[in-house]
Fold this sequence. Notes:
Elements: H1 2-29, E1 45-50, E2 59-61, E3 64-66, H2 68-80, E4 83-88, H3 94-99, E5 105-111, H4 114-117, E6 120-136, E7 153-156, H5 160-168, E8 174-177, H6 180-186, E9 194-198, H7 199-207, E10 213-230, H8 234-249, H9 252-261
Parallel strand pairs: 1-4, 1-5, 7-8, 7-9
Antiparallel strand pairs: 2-3, 5-10, 6-9, 6-10
Helix pairs in contact: 2-8, 2-9
Signal peptide: 1-22
Family: Belongs to the bacterial solute-binding protein 3 family.
Keywords: Signal
Amino acid sequence: MKKAKWTGILLSTVLMSSLLLAACGSQQSSSAPAAGGQADSGKKDFTYAMSGVYKPFSFKENGNLTGFDVEIGQALAEKMGMNAVPITNPFETIIQGLDSKKYDSIIGSLTVTEERQKAVSFTNAYYRSGSQIFVQEGNTTIKSKEDLKGKKIGVVKASNYLDWAKKLTDEDKITTYDSDITALLDLPTGRLDAVITDQVVGLRFIKEGGGKVMDVGEPLSFDEQAIAVRKGDQESVDRINKALDEIIKDGTYEKISQKWFGRNILQKQ
């Protein structure tokens, strides 16, 4: 009886160990591939980062990451014969994540600036827009950038819009956000006098009935947004530029842009 008892215990232990090993193997295979890795399909991964909170460029819908930037990355990956792997990362550390090889590129509405060109290598522009001032509907005191002195301005952290806000008002009057949409939603509450953000983002917010908001004055700048890779990686720049040219020529870019904005946002303003 004792022998049968110990045999049963031994078999149970072996069975439990097998189940645990199987579970561990299952969890490991479902984890996201590392930057520069390779998917089960045999294709190399094209990892590209975005904030994930910048509607309509990248955002979560029903638990899935979607948006213009996501679809552009997928189209580029297809042209390059690669597996598209979009990754979210806070915008204020998105370049640091690229440097530390968490991902191989940034398709995250990153404006080309002289300062950023020192840190990353940029592709050709993949869309163009402008920095725009937005205020609460009915506001008659702010009509241009000259009226922003001493006013409370909301902007996204570590963005070029923050640079504009610092030029136009006092630093203690600036509130930074993770999302432009959250900032725009604060306008009707009176927490902010103005928001500086991408013209396309603000106009789509108004179109979708996001709140009683309006744009004022001329755009502060016309900006080019480009895809970033690690500094000096000319091979990736050339490969992505080639794929970008292909999706523009075959109409894929036009289709994606029309879907999200009702116009081609690569055209010069």
